[in-house]
UniProtKB/TrEMBL annotation:
InterPro entries: c-mor_Regulatory_Protein (IPR052411), Homeodomain-like_sf (IPR009057), YraL-like (IPR049739)
Record-given protein name: Mor transcription activator family protein
Amino acid sequence: MSYINAETVLPEDIIKLVQQYVDGEYLYIPRKIQNQKQWGEKSGIRVFLKARNEEIFKLYALGTSVAELEKLYYLSEKSIRRIIYKEKSRVD
């Protein structure tokens, strides 16, 4: 996250008002609800995990065992089974 100097974007009267509450400190201003991004949207991890999970399910459907998938993807048996269950219910 980068910082923007308030003097470059805010009118002087608003800066003085904010200084009454937070003088010389960093202040986080959250996004409007309609502009918020979902988890993983910015980094691309959401797309990566979706593709990985689809691949795990595809390999499982082709006969790869859960134990083999654990080793291949460095995930626990519980995680592999959860992914398979979710992908199967999504496909049905």
